Amino acid sequence: MRLGARHIWLAVATAPIVGFFALPILYLVAVSFKTKDDVLSGHFWPTVATFANWPDAFEAADIAGFIFNSVTVSVFAGLLTIALALPSSYAVLRLKIGGKWLADVTLSSYMAPPIVALIPLFFLLKGTGLLNTRAGLVLIYGFANVPVAFWLLTPFLRRMPIEIEQAAAIDGAGPLRTLLEIVAPIIAPGIVATLIIVTVLSYNEFLFASAFTFSDATRTLPVGISLFQGDRLVNFGQMAAASLAGIAPVYLIALFMQRYLVSGLAHGGVK
Amino acid sequence: MTAFAADVMRLGQTRHTVRRSLLPARLGRALWIAPVILALTVTTLYPTVFLLALAFSKSTLGKPFRGFAGLKHFATTLQDPIFLSALVRSVAYALTTSLLQLTLGFLIALLFTSLLKAGRVLMSLVLLPLMTPPVMVGVAWKLILAPAGGLLNGTLLKYGLISEPISFLGHPLLAWLAIAVADLWQWTPFIVILCFAALSTIPEGVHEAALVDGANAWQRFRHITLPLVAAPLSSIYLLKLILSFKLFDLVYILTFGGPGFATTSAGFSIYRRAIEQFDVGRAAAETIVYGLVIGLAALPVVRIHQHFERRES
């Protein structure tokens, strides 16, 4: 009996929280099925559901192209970040190369807001002919997320027992082979979580993308959506449909990889 | 350097060269950290040097460094009431919303901890706002808050709480509130996950011991839980503070800095100065001033964190 009351109390406390976090997404879904007049009604659900917004949105703007750009840029950037951060974090934490100062400098470089790098990187891309290219964005994101990856990988590398590497060294494995063949498989959950998180960060990024791309061939989805709303004849139904189409890939990843993600973020932890 | 690391290094190179000379070994070691050095150079060192150079020169987005400008850009920046108030707003926004989100996130984490298994399921649900692209978060909240047909106005009208639709994003204070709510929606889940992790490090036995000693729920929370998570909480606050100073996307989508300059954050102001007005020299000076202000604002939080960490060890 006592337990029942406690359960009810907890459910009462939890319901509004879940409601609040679900509301904006549910409303986007609802609006994406509303007709133009229905959008102005102020009701939650559409009075008459229409499916026209979805194909219309993809026709009104090159949403498919934007999503393709976002996915390719973020995946390559994510892989680049891991390729840069994994050997370095392994070297700093396990081989004691570079020392504590390097870890500190890497982490504190994350403190500066990205606006600091906006103008200098603009000129860098312009000078190298990479302005308004997807390759340019891949390089910028790949470099910019290294501190995040470093931070997320650190606890996984720290917790690994030293005996494993010692055994590898006795067997004559060099540090690179040890990292790739022994360490990487052990901390695979951490690498996967880190890869997903940095990829999603690139996928979601807006500031650099909006300043460094200016043609439909190179724009990523957040930029595409932001242009949607600059349009004076903005159609809310289409905008909601386009937004959901852009959110869908991230939510699918979150759904299938939630175990890795929560543990990756939680362990990435803070002291 | 540990003896083991030395071993590994020796085995990494061909044995003989390493023993004969130190230089190749050193180069080999440097190669390991070259990637992170390269990344830091491109994203931090080069931008800082470049910005300093820009801030002291006459420049446009088309042609940088067209002559020495001295302290002109800094003088203009420090005398510009619009930029100065944007600075004040950015700092006030970051400090207050981060504290609010930390409190809320911590309470939700406590709730989820007591929900046990269901809490873990909810944890994967709260992951979703965190993963949502900020631009889309802005779009969703813009639809909710729209004066014509927005969900909030529709609901308030339906229950007769208001007679005219309110333009939430057209009112200086309400527009900030709207940004804060969207920000809270996106980032509180992150804080919940971190607080949940911090809470799960408290050993079970501690609570049981206190229970045996007859401590009530509040006493256990106040004298056991809180002191044990004080250090992590202070660093979570610092982390959220840093993230809040990056505020840009939500301003861009929800208000575009308006009405007037009411919701123009420092970052947004710099962006418009550089990308729309092409005045990169002045934008560089503003960025440097903003960077210094962030450092000053974060310093007390770093001190608090160090205090808690020292107390713990």
UniProtKB/TrEMBL annotation, chain A:
Where does this protein reside within or beyond the cell?
Cell membrane
Q: Look up keyword Cell cycle and say if it applies.
A: no
Keywords from the named record:
Cell membrane, Membrane, Transmembrane, Transmembrane helix, Transport
Quote the cellular component terms of the Gene Ontology held in the record. plasma membrane
InterPro entries (UniProt xref):
BP-dep_ABC_trans_perm, MetI-like, MetI-like_sf
Q: Does the keyword Amino-acid biosynthesis apply?
A: no
> What family is reported?
Belongs to the binding-protein-dependent transport system permease family.
**Upper taxonomic classification of the species?**
Bacteria, Pseudomonadati, Pseudomonadota, Alphaproteobacteria, Hyphomicrobiales
- PROSITE patterns linked to this entry: ABC_TM1
Q: Which SUPFAM superfamilies match?
A: MetI-like (SSF161098)
Q: How does the UniProt record describe the way this protein sits in the membrane?
A: Multi-pass membrane protein
Q: Which GO terms describe its biological process?
A: transmembrane transport
Q: What Gene3D superfamilies does the annotation carry?
A: MetI-like
Residue span(s) of domain ABC transmembrane type-1: 67-257
Q: What is this protein called?
A: ABC transporter permease
Superkingdom of origin organism? Bacteria
| Membrane-spanning residues | 7-30, 63-86, 107-125, 137-157, 178-203, 236-257
